[in-house]
Design goal:
31% of the residues lie in helices and 2% in strands. By secondary structure, the protein is mainly α. The two termini are 15 Å apart.
């Protein structure tokens, strides 16, 4: 029977405690750091000229759906009552949101080094020391809203605009694709400065600190953010039942994206699953 992923704002205190406890147990055993390493290893930019399955490509959404599922399964092996909640950043848009409470995600980083000093994932607690990252930093860091170069979280109007896209993705199947739901939601836009980062990307940028770059999984809010991204994909799928994953067939020899993106029935590492296998989650979980 399918289980339910809830909006984090609707979690009870007991549900928050169980989620946090399961995450901390994964960290204690080293399993959490394996997830961090997986994301770093698969964070390939479209300028690198090699296969991309996690970012800047059509499989961004199915790859992260599988990533979330594997994380959730690890949590549920510890506590079968736990599911990954989602953070609707169109509603909970400020540092005062319940998301950032001391019993859940903890708050913003302090001035100077942006180290998070509150909550269960603060370095000072002794239970959240970084093992893998893009730097030598060992503590969780955040910089809400980037005060030196301010930006806001995405709005419901911007989400609605993305949901009006009628095709899943379009050539050249990367961060420069001008149409398609995938890139609209992933958030690689035209322009300068913060305008280049929309929706999914903008949320990473708003949180700041470790949420920037391949090591973003080091911040547990990563999972709540991506659960909402997955929810939005699920809504788009329900609105567009005839608009399938693209590309259906691999880009041919001579195409700039030849062997650089995963087509519908091509395998995605590290799990050896295809995008086609991740299109329907209804038998596993639903969203409240």
């Amino acid at each position: 029977m399918a289980y339910t992923r809830k909006n984090q704002r609707d979690l009870t205190s007991a549900e928050k405690k169980r989620f946090v406890s399961a995450v901390l147990e994964l960290k204690r055993t080293g399993t959490y750091d394996d997830f961090v390493r997986t994301h770093i290893d698969h964070y390939v930019a479209d300028g690198e000229g090699k296969l991309r399955v996690a970012h800047m490509c059509p499989s961004f959404l199915p790859w992260h759906r599988k990533f979330l599922l594997e994380f959730e399964r690890a949590l549920r092996r510890i506590d079968p009552s736990v599911t990954v909640p989602y953070w609707d950043w169109t509603l909970d848009r400020t540092p005062a949101a319940s998301l950032w409470s001391e019993d859940f995600m903890g708050g913003n980083g302090r001035p100077g080094d942006f180290q998070v000093m509150t909550g269960p994932f603060a370095y000072a607690s002794g239970r959240w020391t970084l093992r893998y990252g893009m730097t030598e930093q060992r503590f969780l860091s955040r910089d809400f809203g980037r005060p030196r170069d301010p930006l806001d979280l995405p709005t419901s109007a911007q989400v609605d605009e993305a949901l009006r896209e009628r095709t899943y993705d379009s050539a050249p199947w990367n961060s420069t694709s001008r149409s398609g739901f995938r890139n609209r939601l992933e958030g690689w836009a035209q322009g300068q400065g913060n305008t280049r980062f929309q929706l999914h990307n903008r949320v990473h940028r708003w949180v700041g600190g470790l949420m920037l770059g391949g090591g973003s999984v080091n911040d547990p809010v990563f999972w709540l953010h991506h659960a909402y991204v997955d929810l939005l994909w699920s809504r788009w799928q329900a609105r567009n039942p005839g608009a399938g994953y693209l590309p259906k067939d691999p880009p041919p020899l001579g195409d700039p994206q030849y062997r650089k993106v995963a087509a519908l029935h091509e395998r995605m590492g590290p799990w050896n699953v295809t995008p086609a296998e991740l299109l329907d989650h209804s038998g596993i979980y639903r969203y409240a």
